[in-house]
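[09:14] KT: can someone run the structure on this one? pasting the chain below
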Amino acid sequence: MVKAPALSRLAREGFVFENNYCNSPLCGPSRLSMISGR
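[09:31] RB: done, structure tokens below
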């Protein structure tokens, strides 16, 4: 088994988006949309 402390921390402290959709095929605008909620 590989130790991955950063991945384990993300699993513990991360976010769960249950209802989300992609408003743009590009990465940057999609991330901004998820962060801002707009």
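[09:33] KT: thanks! The CA atoms of residues 8 and 14 lie 10 Å apart.
[09:34] RB: yep, looked fine to me
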